[in-house]
Known about the structure:
This protein is of the alpha/beta class. It has a domain at 1-145: 3-Layer(bba) Sandwich (FAD/NAD(P)-binding domain), CATH 3.50.50. 35% of the residues lie in helices and 24% in strands. It contains six helices and seven strands. The chain has helices at residues 16-27, 43-47, 49-66, 82-107, 165-170, 186-192, and strands at residues 5-12, 32-36, 110-120, 123-128, 133-143, 178-182, 200-204. Strands 1-2-3-4-5 form a five-stranded mixed beta barrel. Strand 4 and strand 5 (133-143) form a beta hairpin. The longest helix is centred in the middle third of the chain and has 26 residues, at 82-107. Mean pLDDT is 84; it is low at 187-213. The site of flavin-adenine dinucleotide has 28 residues, from helix 1, strand 2, helix 2, helix 3 and strand 3.
Amino acid sequence: MPQPERYEILILGSGEGGKLLAWELARAGRRTAVVERRWIGGSCPNIACLPTKNEIWSAKVAHHVRHGAQFGAMTGPVVIDMPTVRRRKRAMVDAQIAAHLQNYKASGAELIMGSGRFVAPKTLEVCLNDGGTRVLTGEKVFLNIGTHATIPNVPGLEAARPLTHVEALGRRGGSGHLLHQQARTPATRRSFGRTRSVAFRFTDVGTAPVPGV
Ligand SMILES: Cc1cc2nc3c(=O)[nH]c(=O)nc-3n(C[C@H](O)[C@H](O)[C@H](O)COP(=O)(O)OP(=O)(O)OC[C@H]3O[C@@H](n4cnc5c(N)ncnc54)[C@H](O)[C@@H]3O)c2cc1C
């Protein structure tokens, strides 16, 4: 194993806790590195809280326009342009990523894009996204590796080709209709509390109009 690069603070995962800790401690003068394999800033600004609310806003606007006549606002037929919906969301995500990168630069925390795994106590081997590896060790090591969507072993579910929130947000097709099921069990409630959304499932049920939806 090569001689590890030494940091005072080493953080695996750049989600909510990890990034704020990194920026604060780097600003306080600690030599800090964050290892992130894909989502700069974690899932919230990239594939979870923010992009979903962005698309929900588009849906709300469409709903208001469609029902405008009830409020005395007369319009013609309403057409949803999904590429514009996607572009608006993409622009927001891109702006978030740029703001995060600016925070890394301003604070002095080093962001290392790659997948990390422990190879010794307080020591990570990072398989860099651009190729090659680095070995890093931290006086203090923090884990912020978050959660990810899983497809449970429910008979028939895999054959229905369900979308998790990640694929649903990346859909390029028409507006269609989505059936959405949020699973929450007593065990996940105990583990994650009331405010955490731990499982989202979307199943595409086609593009035919569904009365009342
Ligand atoms: C569709 C959806 C909508 C949501 N909406 C809301 C909301 O409105 N309000 C709310 O409060 N919560 C919401 N949540 C929940 C919220 O997004 C999560 O609770 C929160 O983002 C989790 O943050 P985290 O820092 O724990 O993990 P994450 O943000 O997942 O960060 C972990 C990071 O670690 C990285 N990582 C993991 N392993 C490695 C490794 N080995 N090497 C390198 N990097 C690694 C991952 O790539 C990831 O970027 C939503 C979730 C979903 C799915």
